[in-house]
Protein 1
Amino acid sequence: MTTSTSLDAAAPADLSAPPDPEVQLELFRTATRIARFDEKYRSLMTSGAIGGMYYSPRGQEFAAASVAAHLRRDDYVVTTYRGLHDQIAKGVPLRPLWAEYLGKAAGTCGGKGGPMHVTAPEYGLMVTTGVVGAGLPIANGLALSAQLRGTDQVTVVNFGDGASNIGAFHEALNLASIWRLPVVFVCQNNRYAEYTPLREGTSVDRIANRAAAYSMPGLTVDGNDPIELYNAAGAAIRRARTGGGPTLLEAMTFRFCGHIMGDQQVYIPQEELRAAVAADPLVRFRAQLAAVFTETELAAVERAAADEVADAWEFARTAELPAESELTTDVYAGTAQDGARK
C-alpha cells in the first residue's frame, strides 16, 4: 500500500516494524474509546434521545490514534466536523467532550460549539472546523507561531480527500514548504467526498502525489493498519519537530456510516461497503494483539472504554445548559471598560 513521492526522507526503512507491545495496546485502547463513543452517540440519535448534526468517524479510528500517539500535550491538532476520533486521540477527556456535543455548560466550549466546533486548547485541540479545507491555513498559523517562538511544537492538521481539491489546500502546502513550517498535513482519505467517489472528483489516484509540486515528502499509507501509519506518522512528526519542514501524509481509510447520520449510502457499491465493514481495522488489530496479550487483558480494555463512555454520557445528560447570559459572552473582544459593562 505504501507509496512515496518527492523526498523519501519522510519514510522509515520499514513501516511494518511493530512498536513496543504497550504502544500497540495503547493504540487499541484509544481506538476502542473512539468506537464506543461513536456507537453510543449514534444509538442515542437513532432512538431519538438526542438530536443535532453528527458525522461518524467509525472505521477511521486508527487514522487518528496512530498519528496522535506521537504528539505531546502541547502539540497542536486541527480537525474537521468529522473529528471525534481526532479529539479523543489528542486527549480531550470524555466528560467535557460529551457535554460539548450535547450543548451543555460543562462542555469544552461551554456548550457553544457542539460536535462541529469543538475546541480544547489546554489539550492542544485548537480548532474543529465545519468548513471543508479551512483548517489547513489555520494550521500554518499555529506552526508559524511555534517556529517564531522557537519551540519544537508540531501541528497536525486532519482533513478529508475532498479538501485536497480546494484552493486552501494548495496555498497552505505551498506556504508551509517555503517557510519550512513544522506541520504535518494528514489527509484521511475515506474515498468519498460527501457523496462523490474519489475517482469522480480528484485528478490523481494518490493525493500524496501532490506533495511533489510543493517540494515536500508525500506518503500514502494504509490508514487502517495501525502499525504502518504509526511508523509513517512518527517519521513525519520527527521531521517537523527537528526543523525538517512539512509532510503530506495520506492515510487510506473507509467511513462505515456515510457522510452524515441518515445517509443511505446509495452512491457506494454495497459489496464495497460490506467488504470494508468485514475488514474492520479495530477487529483485525484486536485479533493481532491476541498473540501478545491475553483475552482477559483485551476484554478489560474494552470494558473500561464502555464504562468511561457510559460515565461521560451520564455526566453530560444531567449537566446544566448554558445560562442565558452566555449569549453575549465570548462574542467580541473589547476594552476592559467594555468588559466591566457586561
Note: Strands lie at 3-5, 76-80, 125-129, 155-160, 183-189, 192-193, 196-197, 218-222, 247-252.
Protein 2
Amino acid sequence: MADWTPKVVALDIDGTLLAWVDGQTEDYETIPPAVYDAVHRALDAGAHVVLSSGRSPHGMTRIADLLDVPREGTDRLWIVASNGAVVFRYPPMEVVHEETFDAAPAVAAVLEHHPNALVAVEERGVGGYRVNRVFPEGEISGEQIITEVDDIVGEPVSRVIIRDPEATAQDFVDLGARLGLHGTDYVVGWTAWLDLSPVGVSKASGLAHVCEALGLDASDVLAIGDGRNDIEMLRWAGRGVAMGQAVEEVKAAADHVTESVHDDGAAVEMSRWFPPAGG
C-alpha cells in the first residue's frame, strides 16, 4: 500500500479517540493533542474524517465539537452513529439514513437469561434514552427516562443496549451465539454490554452509505477501532486498524494493529499517511 492514501478516515470514539475510564462522565471527555493534530492533518490533505461509533447521535456531536470539525467554510461532517443504524450530517444535525427493526423478540430472549439486565433505547431525534432502570453514570449520554420494557421496544427502534452488571462480556458472547441473535457485543470498561441492531446493519454498512454519497468505496477507507462492534468495519475497509488494547478477535479482523489508546494509537496510524511537517 506504499502508493495508497486514505480518502476517508473512519474513527471509532471510545477506546480509539478517547481513553475510557470506569465511571467517567462527559466532563472528562478530552481529545489527546496528538490525535487532534493528526485529524487536522488528514483534513488538510483533503481526506474526509467520519466519526463511526455505537454512541447515539447526540453522544457524538460533542466529540465533533471537541475535534473542531467540520472546520469553518467546509462541508458538514458525516457521522455514523448507533453502530451504523443512523447516518447523519452535522451541524446542524440532519439524519440522512436510518434503519429500524422490531427488537421485542430479541430483548425478551435475552431477558429470559438475564432478567436483571438494564435495557435502553435512544429517544430518536431528541437525545437521551428510555431505560427500564438507570444506567451507571457516564455509560450513556443524556436524560434517562424510566419506561417499562414492553413500551421501550413497543415500536421499531434503531438500536437496543442491554447491559448486565452481574454478567461478563463472555457471557454475552456465548448467549448471542446460542440464541442466534443478530447484533454486536462488546465491552465498555468492565461491563457486559450487548447491542442489538437491524439485520445487516453495522458500522460498515453505515460507512458504505457515506462512501456512496461521496463517490468513493471501501478501498478508499482507513478505519480505526477497538471493539467487537468494529469488526465488520475493519474487515470492510481498505485498511482496517485495531487499537493495541483490543481483544484478539478484533485484532484478527484487522490488517494492522497500532498502539493502545493510552499511547495515542489512532494518531500513530494516521501519522503514517498524514505525517507531521518535517516528519
Note: The chain has nine helices and 14 strands.
Protein 3
Amino acid sequence: MTMGNIGKSVIIKGELSGSEDLTIEGQVEGKIELNNNVLTIGTNAKIKAQVFAKVIVVLGEVTGNITASEKVDIRDNGSVDGDITSPKVAIAEGAHFRGAIDMNRGGVPKAAAKPEATSPKA
C-alpha cells in the first residue's frame, strides 16, 4: 500500500480526500476524508478540520471533530480539541484532549438523520 506525505511548509484550505495512508506535517483547514486508510497527524501538524479515517494517530494538534471506523490514538504530545467518535480510543499520558468521546460499537458513525414521524398528520 502506498503512503502519502504532506510536508511542514504545506498549507491546505478546503477538502482533502484520498485512498492511501497519509501523514500530515503541515496545516489543513476544512475537511479530511480517508475513510479506508490510516491518517497520521505529525508532530508539526496543525489541523483545523473535520477528520474521517479508518485509523487516526495524533502526534500534533487537531481542532475539530474526528471520526474513525477502527481506532483513534492520541500520543503523548498530541492534542485534540473536539469530539471523538470511534469504537477504540487510546489517549497517552501527557496527551491533551478536550471534548466528548462516543465509542460506538458498530464502527460506523451514527446517522445524523432525524427520526421519521410515525403519527399521521391531521
Note: The first strand starts at residue 3 and ends at 6.
